[in-house]
Amino acid sequence: MKPIITSIFLGIALVGQTAIAEENGAGLYKSKTCVACHGAEGKKGLLPTYPKLNGQSKEYLVAQMKDIKSGARSNGQTAAMKGIMHLVSEDDMTSIATWLSSLQ
Amino acid sequence: MKIVLRTLTVAISLALVNSVVAWNETGGEKDEAMHLKPNKEHGKDVYEVCTACHLPEGWGSEDGTFPQLAGQHVTVTLKQLADIRAKNRDNPTMYPFALPSEIGGAQALADVAAYIEALPMNPSNGLGEGTDLALGEKLYKENCVKCHGENGEGNSEKFYPKVQGQHYKYMLRQFEWIKTGKRHNSNPEMVKQIQSFSNQDIKAVVDYASRLKPPKEKLAAPGWKNPDYK
Q: How far is A68 from chain B (nearest CA, A)?
């Protein structure tokens, strides 16, 4: 019985964490200025060469953010984004990506 | 040898011509915008896209990522926008926002620059460490006063920016970029003048400049929020 209860609690805690990450993600998406270039809810890039982000996979988003921040990825339009990435921590990336991936 | 010398001379004169042109080209939309009657109400609409980074108040960020725009001379804002548009100031983040498709033509530039100049300024901009202000003051008075003014007020007519009230970390980065040439739309006289500045000099003079206060009537009350964007 005990393990089941623990699992339920764990499950609730995990769902809760995702919900918190999504909620924070929406706020961070604005405060870290992502919205300026990628548009409301990541639905419209400022230029045709800027990607849409809504519904993108979370893992892919986090990987791109990390690589642009570190400079490992420096092609395409990344120069426009690199200049602000010092504002975004890895926790922020996870929250933002969780939220963006949940959007239609 | 002669050919080498001639090539060098040509290269140097080209570089000089380029630097003069690059500093402040006349003609084009910037001049056109300067002679138009600004409509601040429309400027408010144009400015909306800027608020995502420069904030509705135009105060930028204390960490220096984004400069304070509020209170800046119309001429300076126009010059910087025109330079960023023309890729004459290397700023890939800002570039698409300066495009005519985003901001608009000369009238829109005039309108947004007038709106920005009228915004009340940040009463608590980011400052340096405050540990070397005597050196900073000495350097500022010897080097900067002539163009940026005793109190950092700049010179609208000559396109010299206001530095009073600007964030320390923003100015520090720009100063370094002006010195190394990365900010290549800078006044060549300044570029030349600051070549001998050490890192200590740079920090000290920028720290001093960050503490120059705008006149009281130009400052907002602490915590002021721009009612135009509720």
A: 13
For residues A69 and A93, what is the distance between their CA atoms, to the nearest angstrom?
11
Helix (H, G, I), strand (E, B) or coil at B33: helix
CB contact under 8 A, B52 and A81: no
* CB < 8 Å from A in window 179-218 of B: none
Length in residues, chain A? 104
> Which of B52, B93, B102 is the closest to A35 by Cβ?
B52
- pLDDT digits over B79-124, tens only? 999 999 888 999 999 999 999 999 999 999 999 999 999 999 999 9
Q: Which long-range contacts (CB under 8 A, 24 or more apart) does B47-50 make?
A: B47/B112, B47/B115, B47/B116, B48/B229, B49/A36, B49/B97, B49/B102, B49/B103, B50/B97, B50/B112
Please count the other Cβ atoms lying within 10 Å of the Cβ belonging to residue B119.
23
Q: Which residues in chain B are closer than 8 Å to A35, comparing Cβ atoms?
A: 52
Give this prediction's pTM.
0.86
